[in-house]
User: Which sequence fits this backbone?
């Protein structure tokens, strides 16, 4: 199976924030052999006794994913503290850092339920629903859970953390964000139509 990833690059010009490139951030020659190995490993796993511990493995993967995502966004919990937070009753949590971890878990569960529906398709409303789940009860400046950012001129939002990939200034205006989301979804649908597997679509790379 050969993946032609180069032809699936799309350049988007925004009104206020310049140009962006939609592309899959992997090397096609390298990813092909890795993809085949993953597929072979998955088939072997399903047919082995190890499949019985899949639920435990999933919990460990989800924990590592939440810890990593939270750290990139500036979260301060250790992996052990993240695990403790995920075991708490959400109704009793008041600590913001613990709330971040629980919100990420809620977004994961929401995504998993959606993916179980064979008729489900990624759209802007679902992205906003995920955002609302992640940002629920998080007291950040200009926080609008589930709504697109639309900063007045002169108000700048930055995301990320210097210790985990650096700070990033995302698009600040709703028109640009809505355009980028629309183009991202159209691009994703094109990848699906052209048979690019989900495992390769996952690390989508948007560059300025």
Assistant:
């Amino acid at each position: 199976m050969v993946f032609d990833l180069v032809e699936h690059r799309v350049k988007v010009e925004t009104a206020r924030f310049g140009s962006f490139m939609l592309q899959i951030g992997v090397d096609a020659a390298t990813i092909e052999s890795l993809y085949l190995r993953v597929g072979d490993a998955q088939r072997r796993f399903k047919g082995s006794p190890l499949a019985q511990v899949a639920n435990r493995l999933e919990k460990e993967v989800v924990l590592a994913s939440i810890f990593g995502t939270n750290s990139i966004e500036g979260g301060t919990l250790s992996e052990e503290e993240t695990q403790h937070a995920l075991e708490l009753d959400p109704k009793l949590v008041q600590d913001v850092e613990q709330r971040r971890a629980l919100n990420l878990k809620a977004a994961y569960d929401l995504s998993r339920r959606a993916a179980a529906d064979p008729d489900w398709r990624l759209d802007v409303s679902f992205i906003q629903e995920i955002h609302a789940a992640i940002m629920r009860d998080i007291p950040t400046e200009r926080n609008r859970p589930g709504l697109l950012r639309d900063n007045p001129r002169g108000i700048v939002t930055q995301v990320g953390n210097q210790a985990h990939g650096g700070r990033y200034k995302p698009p600040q205006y709703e028109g640009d964000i809505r355009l980028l989301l629309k183009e991202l979804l159209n691009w994703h649908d094109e990848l699906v139509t052209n048979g690019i597997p989900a495992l390769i679509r996952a690390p989508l790379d948007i560059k300025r």
The chain has one domain: 6-207. The beta strands are 10-13, 19-24, 159-161, 166-168, 204-207. The chain has a mean pLDDT of 86.
